Amino acid sequence: MLDLIQAYENYLTKVKQASNNTVSSYMRDIRQFSQWLQNREDMDVLSATQLNISDYLTYLQSQGKSGATVSRTLASLKNFYGYLVSTGFLEISPVNGEIHVDRGEKKLPEILTGKEVELLLAQPSCVDSKGFRDKAMLEVMYATGIRVTELIDLNVEDVNLELGIIKCNGAKKTRVIPLYPAALRALSVYMKDVRMLMVADPSENALFVNVGGARMSRQGFWKILKFYQAKAGIEKDITPHTLRHSFAVHLLENGADLGSLQELMGHSDISSTQMYTHMINQKIKSVYEKCHPKA
């Protein structure tokens, strides 16, 4: 079974070209189900029935897992068993339309106000290499709305300082995103005066590196962001995706159209982009209910 699960992981990575986060989530869900099935029923994934799938989802709910987590697990298993059917390992998938999960009320993501963004971006002290690097990373994240994995995957050749753009290589397509002047200045200073002082190997092509001189990790950037959140005294629970959400909402609030935003965000389906219009509508409704004397 381990070979079969590994084969599916290779399929996701090489054939579907799924993002690192998608592969990680799917494989974690599948391996946890496989382990549960082995421990509880002494069965392997090829022998699982619809009842086993339903029992496992009920088990996850009993463990306090959120509706979104259980729903994602169901999606992971549905795709996995679809792969097993398409490759001839199974004739029929045990995951069918009769299995449903209540996701519960969908919580809109947290976003920062314009003032909170300015406060966050002002935190790095540009007095040493780390400060210049952190300033450049935060500015680029808010300027472009790219995902954290896309940020740390950037290479030096993905930046064109003369044109003021970066080339972002997403999971399925490459997009070109402009930088506003402050972000361009911060990135230019980092690249011209700081980066080569930080890299351990002169042949290193990673744009952003850690204090050891190697490519920055997702966990490393997360810690940096949390540090500056605390320094700024921002009480919202900020994650790297918070800057991406804030980028999108702020563009829409200032007149950007959905089609252009979809292109900048790298969304394959515009329904993903439309979420941000719901966020703006919810914000307007909240202001109305708070401020209208008859509300």
Distance between the termini: 59 Å
| Total beta-strand segments | 3
Write the CATH fold name of the largest domain.
hpI Integrase, Chain A
The CATH superfamily name of the largest domain is Intergrase catalytic core
Main beta-sheet strand count, sense and barrel state? 3 strands, antiparallel
Taking all Cα atoms into account, the compactness measure Rg is: 22 Å
Mean pLDDT: 89
Instruction: Kindly provide the name of the CATH class of the largest domain.
Output: Mainly Alpha
State which percent range the strand residues make up: under 5%
Count up the domains. 2
Question: Helix and strand layout, with pairings?
Answer:
Layout lengths: L1 H14 L4 H22 L8 H13 L4 H20 L27 H8 L7 H16 L3 H6 L5 E2 L4 E5 L4 E5 L2 H18 L19 H15 L7 H14 L4 H8 L4 H22 L4
Antiparallel strand pairs: 1-2, 2-3
Helix pairs in contact: 1-2, 2-4, 3-4, 6-8, 6-10, 10-12, 11-12
Name the descriptors.
295 residues; mainly alpha; DNA polymerase, domain 1; hpI Integrase, Chain A; 2 domains; 3-stranded antiparallel beta sheet; 12 helices; 60% helix; globular
Structural summary, described in words:
The protein is mainly alpha-helical. 60% of the residues lie in helices and 4% in strands. The protein contains twelve helices and three strands. A hairpin with a 4-residue loop joins strand 1 and strand 2. The chain has a three-stranded antiparallel sheet. The model has no long low-confidence stretch (mean pLDDT 89).
